[in-house]
Amino acid sequence: MIRKLSVLILMFLFFKESKIFGYNENDIVLYPVVKSAERSILFSTKTNGVSVFTEKFRDISYANFAHNRPASIEVKVEEKILNWDISPKKNIKMARMVGNSVQFNLEKPGFHVLTINNKHRYFLLADKKEKGISATPKAKIIDIKSYGVDSTGNKVETKLIQRALDETARDKKILVFSSGIYRTGTLKISSNANIYLAPGAVIKGSDDRNDYPADGNKKESDHVNDKANFTDNGEWMTFSRLILIGEAENVRIWGSGIIDGNGRVVRAQGKPANLIRIRNSRNVTIEGIMLRDPASWNTHILKSENITIRNVKILNDREVANTDGFDPDASQNVKIDNCFAYCGDDSIAIKNTNNSDLIQDCDNIVIKNSVFITKKSALKVGTETKGNTMKNILFKNNTILEGDRGMVLYCYDGAGFRNIKFLGNSFEKGYKSKNLKILHFEILSRNGQGSIKDILIKNSRVSSSFSTISEISGLNNEHTVSGVRFKNFRLDGKMCSTPQDIGLKANQFVKNLKITK
Most buried of the four, 165, 279, 333, 392, by CB within 10 Å? Predict the structure, then answer.
């Protein structure tokens, strides 16, 4: 009786607060359910009392919708809840377990992960309401279906979709992918393209590896048909992708739809196609959409400038190899802001690979306000570092829910790392592996000898679950790591003032290491 009364009181307080915040089901935008979507059998979701479709994707479940005002969330679990946790906790209020559900108030849009019984993951992907194209004159809008493109996903429509892309870009109109499934091989996006993916729209990769031709018939790494010559080095691994923004400028892709690389099927045929490659381009914006299931790196930004990726959700298949999240490569003026990435490989890897003989210094790259989960490195510069300098790189206010390494600088192919800042990042849980460490800075001599200088690590919040000793290693007296500064570094909430507090060792080629409050 007492237990029932306690539950009733909690429910009363929950809904009382909901009324105070002024919740209304009309504040929620529900996205159309894609016909091929698999409903989760473990989780179900209600938002402001309204059911939201909860999809199963590989080893996780997720709900994706949009809102602007505070919302009440109820996640029901079809398993006895022994323990649970939700993170990040920012903007989460009154989180509680009621029976076999977890309830909480969500103050604003954002990305959160609910973990049940230490093994089941549920992603709450709450977008900010977008304006869409409702205010755009109809004369400026072309629906892809007007080209006779099949929207059931039953036909590969590469030629028709490519024609639509080319013509609307030429005429400076907006090409709209309305709700439906559009099956395709590689598509090339040209200058002045404006592509809107409406809620419920999915651009889906073909099942056939031959629909992803490599640039100039270059030989790619193929772990199925040519195992002996396989490499995951970015210079030679892949020359194919589903979406190519190549030699283009003034491109925008936005909306609430999905680009799905069909990666598990494609990679099983030995084809390491990226989901998106932005190559030798400038003034490109990708906003709001979901980028799902690549066959290798998800988003590769190669020798490009003025690139903005905002409010994007990445869901990779963690069992497919080389599934990085974002890879800025030989690029400048790149901003990745308020994104979510679930990866089997590095969440962020800033590189200089010399892929396709495209190389320039990396400069002014910002990764901020994002949530990352990975089995590998979370915030990384390297491993390929074939340019002259990689400088002015900022990782700010990111939350790493899981990773085997937190902050990583791998200077293996030469290049000078300069002015790299890790500010206000939080590292919650280490993914168990032999590399389980919060920090690893290292210079090696693979294709050149570089250096690392002027690194600031400030206001970091770190869990002791990163249990392996962190390392900073220079190469020799001429190729050193110098000027690494820790300020307000907290391990399990405790301020660190010595390398021993951090669990850090440095070799004799590390100069001017400072740790302050």
Answer: 279
CB atoms inside a 10 Å sphere around CB 197: 25
* Closest C-alpha among 393, 395, 407 to residue 362: 393
Task: Give the residue among 147, 159, 158, 261 at the shortest CA–CA distance from 202.
Answer: 261
Spatial CA neighbour of 22 closest among 71, 67, 65: 71
Q: Provide the pLDDT for residue 134.
A: 85
Determine phi and psi for 396, rounding to 5 degrees. Answer: -135, 130
Q: Which long-range contacts (CB under 8 A, 24 or more apart) does 39-43 make?
A: 40/122, 41/78, 42/77, 42/78, 42/79, 42/120, 42/122, 43/75, 43/76, 43/77, 43/78, 43/120, 43/122
Residue 67 near residue 129 (C-beta atoms within 8 A):
yes
CB 482 within 8 A of CB 510: yes
Specify the length of the chain in residues.
517
| Residue 388 phi, psi dihedral angles, 5° rounding | -85, -50
Q: What is the pTM of this model?
A: 0.94
348: nearest Cα among 306, 314, 311, 387: 314
pLDDT tier, 26 (very low <50, low <70, confident <90, very high otherwise)? low
Find tokens 């700010």 and name the residue: 396
Q: How far is residue 325 from each of residues 68, 247, 411, measured CA to CA in Å?
A: 27, 22, 20
The three state secondary structure string of 280-317 is CCEEEEEECCEEECCCCCCEEEECCEEEEEECCEEECC
CB atoms within 10 A of CB 273: 30
